[in-house]
Amino acid sequence: MTSVRALTPRRLKIALILVPMVLALVYYLFLAADRYVSESIVTVRRANQDAVNIPGAALLLAGVNPPAREDTLYLREYIHSLALLKRLDERFKLRKHFEAERMDPFYRLYPGASQEWFLAYYRARVEVLFDDVSSLLTVRVQGFEPQLAEALNRAILEESEKFVNAFSQRMAREQMAFAEEELKRAEQRLQGAKSQVLAFQAKNRQLDPMAQAQASGALVAELQAGLARQEAELRNLRSFLNEDSFQVQAVRHQVEALRKQLDEERLRATASSDDARLTDQAARFRDLTLQAGFAEDAYKLALSAVENARIDATRKLKSLVVIEPPARPEIAAYPRRAYNLVTLFIVCCLIYGVSRLVVATIQDHQD
Description:
This protein is an alpha+beta fold. It contains eleven helices and five strands.
């Protein structure tokens, strides 16, 4: 009870306002280190993939698509990766730079920090902000020296460019290897289809059974027409000549010869043996030629895919576009001393007001 009564407004002000403000002033005036920020804005653009449908030299004139959102997200993760941190540390001695500031207890890197802690510290000093609307990537690099902040930002962009190019070329090589494998398979299928056609022609001793079937059909139609004419002429002769007359016998022999020839042609086209049936041979030959045609079309497509992949492998499929290059900062962006002190003062006053109300309420109940 006595302790609550001892919490006078003056003591509350000292404990909740004066002491925090004095400590903050000491920190911001004597301990806080200036942190400079270098900022850059980039994005990843991808070459137009629709250009693969354009034949010839028009492929070289392909445009660019809007920013590749997924590639930009991959780049964001790469900038915060341990692999990039190791390369930057070898180049700029980042660990020594961040350990050199010994006065600031909150933003310094303590000697002997683990790799995981160093990575977390690096990610806190290198901000990578992604804009979902424009797919732009903002890289904000903090450093205790303005020269290092600018140089580190430029180095990050250089490594990002290498990452995008390597990733693009690796994809192009994989696509080209896949297209070449497909070309080999398409060539094998085409050769197999051609061999089947040649074997069929050699076995049946026919260059084109379909054409022969058409010719046989035309011959049967011609024989039927000729037979009809001869039969009409025979009936006409019988109407005024005897059966044993020379003209009637000659026409009768012609009719019999035409009928015999017509029966032979019909039998040849509809023989009982599958190998001898001309229509069946024509149908099988048509299937083989269709398969060969499909194999040839697939080979042409595979050949075109290989050519497109070869062109893609020699040009940049993706590129890093720098919208705003990094600049050397002239003033320290952090710490924002005035803003932080004013904010702390307001928060302390709010805490004091709430605490004063609670203490007054308790004291009233005690009375």
